[in-house]
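Input chain follows. Return structure tokens only.
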Amino acid sequence: MLIAIVAAVALARTLSAGGSLAAQAPAGATDTFSDSHFHLTNYIQQGIDVRQYMEIKWDDVLDDRFELSGDATGWGLNFSSNLKATASDIVRLQFVFGGGIQNYMNDSPVDVGIVNSFSNPVTPILGEAVPIIGVVAFLDHTWNPRFSTAVGYSLQDNDNTEGQAPNAFKTGHYALGNLLYTPVPNVMMGGELQWGRRENFSDGFHSDGLKLQFSFKYNFSYKLGG
């Protein structure tokens, strides 16, 4: 029996201080909804060990006195919710936690970190799945049929292992706010202010960045032939 727990692929853009999860609703939309999700995907297959599908493995190919091959278990759980707070407001929430799932996120560190084991002369270092949490909170607000706004914040925090380099990525923060204008159908334009912050593991380094961007979008379609 195989049970694979699928982590938050949907957070790949936002949790690493790299983008916004907030999907802008069409101007003037009047849909009413409120939904929440707990993502746990199960696959069942006869005769296959679940550990084979949650295992992260590495091989030491050097012919020396050390044996550094090993494995770790990657896992993650993701919770998400879209709430229709008012006729003009949608709240989008998401939370993920696990270990060894950094490759599902943009700009994350490695999935596996080093743990010191210097008392063992053959295997002086071990590998351990790096624990991680991620949070997303966004609000989509429709001012009127032509103007809308998305504002929100996301966080990725890694519990670095003791053997990782002092400059290893630990925490990323990301926030944005925008104002979008839809003057006519299929045309949208607007500006967005973005802020991001990186914090390292243990060398004291952190860096903030601000970016102001303007965008224009035109939707069109054209059919060739009959």
